[in-house]
Amino acid sequence: MKEILTPVIFLTYTGVLFFPCSGHRIERSTSCAQKYQVIPNHSACLQKTAIATDSGISDEDKNVIVSKHNEYRSVVNPPAVAMAKMSWDDEIAMIAQKYADACKGLVHDGGRQRSIPGRFSVGQNLASASYDLDWAGVIKLWYDEVKDFTLGGNNDLMKVGHYTQVVWATSIKIGCGFAVCGSTRSYVCNYGPGGNLDINNPYESGSACSKCPNSCDNNLCDCQGKACENGGTMDFNACACTCKPPTTTYVGPSCQLNCTGQKDRSYICGPQFTPAMCDRFTNVPQDCPTMCKVCPYAGIGFAAPDGGQEPVKSNTRLSILTTMIVLISFRLIF
Ligand SMILES: *[C@@H]1O[C@H](CO)[C@@H](O)[C@H](O)[C@H]1NC(C)=O
Ligand SMILES: *[C@@H]1O[C@H](CO)[C@@H](O)[C@H](O)[C@H]1NC(C)=O
């Protein structure tokens, strides 16, 4: 078990005034699905700050983000035996966007706070700029850390952590968010399933695509957007998942979580360990879905009282108003 370490990138050290975001005053909102509400401070439940403007990502930029990542993934040197072709994921992107709108600057949210309960843990790259940097430029900055990287070497996480996330072989899904926060632009990309653990070995080297000849497209294993959830492992040649046991808990072609009759079986879920483990270790929510409240809320077919759906997004004006009310009520309380 390893903790996920997530570095930040500082584009500007001096001469830039970072707007003092009211991040620590953000209230949890109930405008998020119940599976997120049960996780303390989940980013999906953050409210948009009043200073966040111009938020969101155009379809054009989504294409740039995905294709730039795939371009860099296809040219890794030495080549990769099985480098997954990335595709966009709306749920990952929704959480990244909520986090961008919270205007936290270059501070990462917690691994648990950005994870997707019942699907997978999620990695993250951040960037912040005082000028209008386009997405291709942001991803290039992350990729350019390649100059300090040696595959299998003894790399410095703070120097190469963004690069290793960009080329993490099994992170097959990406979703990003963007907001202008006062005078700062905030870029958030989240990656699932999360990885970036052994940063010296983001992928296995060998002849390109040699472990996925059947799905190979331009040096990438193209499984048409399919991902394995809940710790399932992908056979990138067959594009098929091998789910973790027990077979009644992780079911179907993508290893969806079945909470019916679920009991935590692993020794790490016992009373000798505490639910705090759910926050610290990415495998614990998978292995102990009941202790970590992933079950029943993220199980297949779970019906929340409100249907468990994301409510229709309120318009910007309304959410600004809501944030102001929250801030005023804080003033009254403190
Ligand atoms: C949630 O956020 C609040 C306010 O930032 C903090 O005091 C609290 O410790 C957080 N709880 C968890 C479980 O992260
Ligand atoms: C979910 O688990 C229950 C109890 O173990 C089992 O009866 C049921 O068949 C499972 N559902 C699926 C879709 O596998």
Unreliable segments of 5+ consecutive residues:
1-29, 307-334
Mean pLDDT: 84
Helix % is 10-25%
Count of separate DSSP helical elements: 9
Hetero ligands: 2-acetamido-2-deoxy-beta-D-glucopyranose
Helix/strand-derived category reads: alpha+beta
Radius of gyration: 20 Å
Question: Sheet with the most strands?
Answer: 5 strands, mixed
Number of strands: 11
Strand content: 5-15%
Pfam family, one: CAP
GO cellular component, one term: extracellular region
Organism: Magallana gigas (Pacific oyster)
InterPro entries: Allrgn_V5/Tpx1_CS, CAP_dom, CAP_sf, CRISP-related
Task: Give the helix/strand layout.
Blueprint: H1 34-37, E1 52-53, H2 59-74, E2 87-88, H3 90-101, H4 111-114, E3 123-129, H5 135-143, H6 157-166, E4 173-181, E5 184-192, E6 216-217, E7 220-221, E8 233-235, E9 240-242, E10 250-251, E11 256-257, H7 276-280, H8 284-287, H9 316-333
Helix pairs in contact: 2-5
Bound molecules: 2-acetamido-2-deoxy-beta-D-glucopyranose (NAG) (2 copies).
Compact summary:
This protein is of the alpha+beta class.
Features:
25% helix; 334 residues; globular; two-stranded antiparallel ribbon; five-stranded mixed β-sheet; binds 2-acetamido-2-deoxy-beta-D-glucopyranose; alpha+beta
